[in-house]
Design brief:
By secondary structure, this protein is α/β, with parallel strands linked by helices. It contains 14 helices and twelve strands. The strands form two sheets. The chain has a seven-stranded mixed β-sheet, sandwiched between helices. Helix 6 (164-175) links the parallel strand 7 (155-158) and strand 8. The radius of gyration is 20 Å and the shape is globular.
Length: 367
Amino acid sequence: MPANTALRRTFAVIAALPLLTLAACGYGSQSTDEGTVKVAAGAEKIDGLDSVRIGYFGNLTHATALVGNQKGYFQKALGATEAKYQVFNAGPSEIEALNSGSIDIGWIGPSPAINGYTKAKGTNLRIIGGSASGGVKLVVNPDRIESVKDVKGKKIATPQLGNTQDVAFLDWIAEQGWKVDAESGKGDVSVVRTDNKVTPDAYKSGSIDGAWVPEPTASKLVAEGAKVLIDEADLWPDKKFVITNVIVSQKFLKDHPKAVEAVLKASVETNKWINANPDEAKAAANRQLGVDSGKELPAAVLDPAWKSIQITDDPLASTLNTEAEHAVKAGLLEDPLLKGIYDLTLLNKVLGAAGESTVDDAGLGVK
C-alpha cells in the first residue's frame, strides 16, 4: 500500500473515533456565576428551538466558550432556547459529533476542521468565526535538550496524530531537514502521540523529553521543570495563527440562522469582555475548567498560559490555508479544496452592528 494512502486511511480512522464527551449541561447549569444565566421572564425560543448544542475543549485556547458558558453569554443570547454543552478531548470526536447531529456548533482547532470538511467533500460544516490565536509551545526537559539541534533523536509528545499541534510539529521537523514517518512517528525525532491529560505524567516519568502542546498543558510541564524552547507564535507573520475557530453544521446554519447569529453575537460579546477584563476573564475560564474537569488550574500554570493566548473574532483565514498546506506536505492530507469552508456573513453582520471591523475569509468563503 502506498505510504500516503496508508496515512490517509489512518487519518480517516482517527476521524471516526467514538465520541468522548462529558454529560451535556444546559441553561448554564455548569456556570458558577449566580444570576448570569437565568432566562429572562417572557423570553422566547429562537427559531422555535428547544436547545442549541455547543461543543468545546477543556483548553484555555477555547476561552471564548469557557467564559461564554461560565458568564452565561450564550444562554442570555438564546433566550428561552436552552444552551447545552459538551466537552471534548480531541477534534476528530467533535467533528464526528457534528456529523452525527449530536452538536450544532463547536469551538475547534483548524486541522480537524480542515480534515472534516475535506472528508465530507465540503458538505458538513462551515467555519463561521474566530476565537483564539497562539497558546502553543514546544516545551522540553532542559537536562536533555538545551537547543533546537538537541531535539533530534529525542521523544517529543503531540496530542494526537493529525491534530493541529501534530501537524505543526511535523512541519517544523521538516523545516530542520529531519525526516519522520508521519504515521508511525518514527524517524530523526520520535513523535509520541499522547493525550494532553497524560502528557504531564509522561514528562515526570521521563518517558518523553518534551512536548509540542497547547495551553494549559505547556505551562503544566513548565511547572514541572520544563522550559519553553519555541513559542509557535514566533514562527508566524505578525505572531498570529489560528488555534481555535467556531464551526457549525451546514444543515443547522441553513435551518436556524437566527440561532447561529445569536451564538455569534454572544461570542463577540464574550470576546470583547475577555479583552476588556483579562484578569476577571482568566478567573472565569478557570472556574469553568474546574466545573468541566473537577479541578481548577493553579496560578503557576494559569497565569503564563493565559498570557500566551490572544482572543479574537478574526478567524485568521490565511493562516488556516497555510496549516492545510503543512498537512499536505506531511502526507496527512491530499491537497484539499477549501473553497466554501468559511461563511462569515453572520459574523460580519454582528460585527458591523457592534461597530467593529469586519473580517476576511482569504478567498475561501461561500460563493
